[in-house]
Write a structure and sequence with these properties.
This protein is mostly helical. The chain has twelve helices and no strands. The chain is globular, with a radius of gyration of 24 Å.
Length: 306
């Protein structure tokens, strides 16, 4: 297991570096600039701002200076939120984004595994087909559809839940978490159903049944663990989809998370803010992929030997 962690970390650093460098240059070649607004600044003011933020230097020098600061944990100053550094903005938005993502993955795992387990037990029957149709629909619906739909139905029409902002209690979390969890739970349900249906047809399950073991014990002790191997391998991409989906969900529900800062930074060409969020997202996705590999290795010991 330690060798697996070492191999993943050896590839993680160059991958993260490549993402940062690519994002840096893509942001610079995009049209527009951080100081372009409805009321254009005078050439002298723009030149002074370019010098103040180091944007007058060659691109390769800007990239080197950014990487040097980043190695010290400094994301640089925000070009739009000028009273804050990017580190301060990230510190404000990260806890909310992590809470949304964490609750969404817990809900998706619970719902997805439960639905997949029930469908596998009823394999080939009407209940199985109905469950898989619902799982397919949930997987296909993006968050920019489910988020506004939930807000319209439960918030505006029924008036049961707050539509925007982070208020008191937990009611404001329900719709964002459900919107994030729906597509992931659908995919987990399909993977669980396929894995468990295959495992339940194997010889060791037939042997356990021939010995008279209770069906519940066969299902949870002998069937579920190997059936969850595909789910474990999906957790890395699932974490990525939750992070990218959070950008939309936080914007739809007006939540002050990293997603909203990312959207505002992209619209305003706030280079340090966008790069800071992209860097953090990339690091989290790489970390979640590592956790996914560790869970995969625990479920399937053959993975540790590769």
């Amino acid at each position: 297991m330690l060798a697996l962690i070492a191999r993943r970390l050896m590839t993680a650093v160059p991958t993260l570096l490549a993402i940062i460098v690519a994002s840096f240059f893509l942001m610079r070649v995009a049209p527009g600039g951080p100081f372009d607004g409805e009321r254009p600044l005078s050439p002298e003011t723009q030149a002074a701002l370019q010098i103040a933020y180091g944007l007058d230097k060659p691109l390769w020098e800007q990239a080197w200076l950014y990487l040097s600061r980043l190695a010290q944990g400094d994301f640089g100053p925000s070009l739009v939120y000028r009273d804050f550094t990017v580190t301060e903005l990230v510190a404000q938005g990260l806890p909310l984004s992590l809470m949304l993502g964490g609750l969404a993955i817990i809900l998706a795992l619970f719902v997805g595994i439960s639905v997949g387990l029930f469908a596998a037990v009823k394999a080939g029957k009407t209940a199985d087909k109905a469950m898989m149709i619902m799982a397919t629909v949930a997987t296909a619906l993006p968050t920019f559809v489910t988020g506004p739909a939930l807000a319209l139905f439960f918030g505006l029409w029924l008036g049961l839940l707050p539509v925007s902002g982070a208020g008191e209690g937990l009611s404001w979390l329900l719709m964002p978490v459900v919107a994030l969890a729906l597509p992931v739970s659908g995919a987990i349900a399909k993977l669980t159903r396929a894995g468990l249906a295959t495992v339940l047809k194997q010889d060791h399950i037939r042997t356990a049944r021939a010995r008279g073991l209770p069906e519940i014990k066969i299902l949870f002790k002998h069937g579920l663990r190997p059936a969850l191997v595909p789910v474990a391998s999906y957790l890395g991409p699932a974490a990525a989809s939750l992070l990218t989906g959070a950008v939309v969900v936080e914007t739809v529900f007006g939540l002050p998370g990293l997603g909203r800062y990312f959207v505002q930074g992209a619209l305003n060409r706030d280079y340090p803010l966008v790069l800071g969020v992209v860097t953090l997202y990339a690091a989290l996705i790489i970390l979640f992929n590592l956790f996914s590999d560790l869970i995969y290795g625990w479920l399937d010991p053959r993975m540790r030997e590769e």
